[in-house]
Amino acid sequence: MNAKLLSLSFAMTIALAACAKTETPAADATASNATAAAPAAPTAPVAPEAPAAPAGDIELTMAKVDAWLAASKNLAIAEQSDASLDSAMNASEEDSAKYAARLEATPKLREAIEEAGMSTRDYALTSEALVSTLMAVGAVDAGLVKEIPAEIHPQHVEFVKAHRAEIEKKMQGGAEG
Asked: Per UniProt, which keywords does this protein have (predicted)?
């Protein structure tokens, strides 16, 4: 991994890792508070909304990587053409559910992602899974850490190790084109 890509990936991973640490407790607390505050109903209670699926619940494939890269390019074009858009790549203080919701709520961003054949949810989960795994594998290979963190899904690690050169080539091509 070249230094520029490693730096970008490292920054994104730190941001995503910070989000991942707060995602589950906040979602659980919200669900608990909503359940506790709900009045008793004579009919069967409605289950609280499930917390967002962690990135480990998404399987990484080259088709998803290709769609993610196309969506990322579309987002960059949309943001360049409209200065009023939030940066779609800035998920620093959001868990994947909030990030996907923000993308979904912004028509131009949602359309840019959908043009690539992805939902905003899949885009957010693929972003988190791919970037964090690339960073973890890169950090181990560079000797910065001794092992892949337990939070990184084993399928993602296997996928990235098997396709890393191809992914990095596509990412570099996407940055240039």
From this structure: Signal
Kindly give, in sequence order, each residue whose CB lies less than 8 Å from that of residue 127, ignoring residues fewer than 6 positions away.
16, 68, 91, 96, 99
- The percentage of the chain sitting over the pLDDT mark of 90, rounded to a whole number, equals 47
What contacts 102, CB < 8 A, 6 or more positions away?
A: 86, 94, 109
Q: Three-state SS for 83?
A: coil
Rounded Cα–Cα distance for residues 27 and 51 (Å):
6
CB 109 within 8 Å of CB 103: yes
* CA distances, 117 to each of 39, 54, 58, 100, 149 (Å): 41, 21, 16, 15, 31
CA torsion through residues 163, 165, 166, 168, sign:
positive
Q: What is the pLDDT of residues 104-157, one digit of tens each?
A: 988 999 999 999 999 999 999 999 999 999 999 999 999 999 999 999 999 999
> Is the distance from CB of 123 to CB of 100 less than 8 angstroms?
yes
